[in-house]
Amino acid sequence: MTISVAVIGAGMAGKAHAAAYRVAPTLYQSTLPPMRYKAIADINAELGAATARRYGYEEAVTDWRAIAEDPDIDVVSVVIANSLHLEVVRGLLDAGKHVLCEKPLSDTLEAGREMARLAREASTVARIGLTYRRTPGVAAIQRWIADGTLGRPLHFSGRYWCDYACSPDASMTWRYRGPMGSGALADVGSHLTYIAEFLGGPVKAVSGGAMSTVIPERPLPLGATVGHERAAVSEETARVENDDYAKFTAHLRDCDASLEVSRVAAGYPNGLNFEVFCENGAASFHQDTPSQVRLYLHDDHPATNGYRTVNLGSDHPYVQGGLPMDVAGVGFGQNEGFAYQARAFLEEVAGFPEEDSLPRNATFDDGLRNMEILEAVARSAEFNGKKVTP
């Protein structure tokens, strides 16, 4: 058995998927079947070709249908604009491909529901990547909650602050189009929401929703844009349709969570931070120091109690045997999360028993649930913070 891989989308996250498939067989023991890195697809021919060369894929194509029609391709990552997910995923599943789709699942609930239905009826594996659940620090905190070290969560406080949109000169892209709730809330709030559920249990309701657009217009780019890169712009502008900032309270099974997201937080290129306060102590994670977490336990001596810094290493999830240097103090970050995600997906496609694999990737139903929560936040904001059940 050989697994042949393709990636649709050669932008920032597309490169992360392309690289992750290259790294995945080198994680842990070499138990995966032989891999073939077949194609990168992107409407920008130059970008697609450059990404294929960089990561050693055999070819670049400009139409995703070439991927769907290629009988040699088994596994496909879909890493394109949210509004395109339904059409592309439908075509890939109809063609018998295994599909790993980036979050959020789609741009509308209607499309998300249809994608979830397609996945349930498919003969192949369809999964969505919720990458931060595989961050060793986040997974370690979840383990400490589950095994009783920290015990039941009492309060979760999280924020995801980014600055990619803080300049009014940042050019107009697809990220700034769509209804309120499809901006910062969908982009980074989706991550923060599933992390809160990962640690505190399912969301039962949301309240206190509030959203704002603080930069109402943006200049149109003169050429193609990639990811969050700055581009040359024209004097013509277009209206920003969705949210730059959002906040809400999520009422989880085990506790309440206060959540805040922004794409205009100057000085925070990728600022995911949270604290969870529990029966037996507390823990916090900061994206700028991803190889560490902070831990506090009530059984510390009163004279010396307080947060301690834990350097993540081979005693913590995903690290032991998964990295070339799997010892505490050797840094790692978000890119490794994509590699763990790819490895888990390839193990499932290859038919590895679940008990002998990394935790499975989330289902499309999980992705739809994430969208339903964010839609409830948008409705809460529309009705001045009213409590809404997803």
Automatic annotation (TrEMBL):
Signal peptide: none annotated. Residues 139-283 form the GFO/IDH/MocA-like oxidoreductase domain. Gene3D superfamilies: Dihydrodipicolinate Reductase, domain 2, NAD(P)-binding Rossmann-like Domain. The keyword Oxidoreductase applies. The keyword Cell cycle does not apply. Pfam families: GFO_IDH_MocA (PF01408), GFO_IDH_MocA_C3 (PF22725). InterPro entries: Gfo/Idh/MocA-like_OxRdtase_N, Gfo/Idh/MocA_oxidrdct_glycsds, GFO_IDH_MocA-like_dom, NAD(P)-bd_dom_sf. Residues 3-128 form the Gfo/Idh/MocA-like oxidoreductase N-terminal domain. Keywords: Oxidoreductase. It comes from the Bacteria. This is Gfo/Idh/MocA family oxidoreductase.
